[in-house]
Amino acid sequence: MAKATIKQVAAEAGVSTATISRVLNSSGYVSDEVKNRVMLAVDKLQYQPNAIARSLKQDKSFTIGVVLPDISNPFFMTICRGLEDVVQEYGYHLIFCSSDELPEKEAQLLQLMTEKRVDAVVLATTGGNEELVARMSAAGIQFILVDRSLDLPGPAVDLVAEDDVNGAYELTKQLIQQGHSVIGVINGCMGVSTGQDRFVGCQKAFTEAGMEHEAAYDYDGKFTESGGREAVRYFLQMAKPPTALLSFNNKMTFGALLELTENGRDIPGDIAIASYGEVEAARLLKRSGIVYVDQKPYELGIKAGRTILHRLEKGAESTEAVRDILQPVIKKLES
Hints:
By secondary structure, the protein is of the alpha/beta class. It is built from twelve helices and twelve strands. The strands form two sheets. Strands 2-1-3-4-5-11 form a six-stranded parallel sheet, sandwiched between helices. The chain has a six-stranded mixed sheet with strand order 7-6-8-9-10-12, with helices on both faces. α1 (6-13) packs across α3 and α8 (164-177) packs parallel to α9.
């Protein structure tokens, strides 16, 4: 069955094609009686507006590109849930992409967003594409950085994130206050702000406590589950294994927990765990005593969505860049 055209809908409703466009785009006055006739005709003919043609005419696609480092990570998908809950009410739709922590793939995806004529890009960056982001922003694409910041040439862009330095600082202090002096640190990607800032925060806590933390007790887990597993294998073979592990994201923590339990290690009897971000599966462990930064990804998504709408709906391009930073809360698993 051939798709209905706007001319066919106009003929069915007994109005002009311009009136059909005004009704469907909510632009200009149309009486309620005419609106009802148009919508009855749309339903009867199962008319689907041509989104591409509409976006060219309005110079707006009503789509927002979302480029994430790991689309399988519940943290990032919860951000997207909050983002979508805000923007969908205004007719915007999201296009999701995963860069897999690869700067070159991120660059390709950002170019794709340009080709798709998205109205805005939400970016949790892998780093390394500062020049490209700056060029795209200067060309008129609204950017909002989420979770991870970028040091851009030229004007800053909007940012919604957490205070990673303070979060890691407070988390590290928890282990120190428990009496641990040999702590294994599972780092994330040091090429992005979250990896850098969390490492700075833990080093600040070590220095403040007068502790000398040896570089041998740092392991690059690359923000991945497999990296968490590999870190545990590395630490357990040391002549003096750490009595506590400090993991800087939820996926690395999950990998570390899997490896420890498969090796028959008791948590916290044999080794204590501190995690930047909660791992829901950890609730299955009895009295693990895991301390963690209680992240708020849904709130990050809500704030990002509101910032985007402020830019797209109110035309607030010239205002100062938003910098919305959430403060961390430390919690402990008791059960």
